[in-house]
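Illustration 12: Membrane protein.
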Amino acid sequence: MSRNGLFAVIAVLAIAVVAFAIYTYQQEQARPGIEVRVDDTGISIDGNG
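Figure caption equivalent — predicted structure in token form:
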């Protein structure tokens, strides 16, 4: 494999890692601020505040 091909593979892998990190961060930020649970013990409401 030529040196330019190796650099291209490394660049593609680096871009994929950065894109995955951005996607994961956006998914974490998109979570709702309030969580409501209903179970055997009753109703629980949790917030991010």
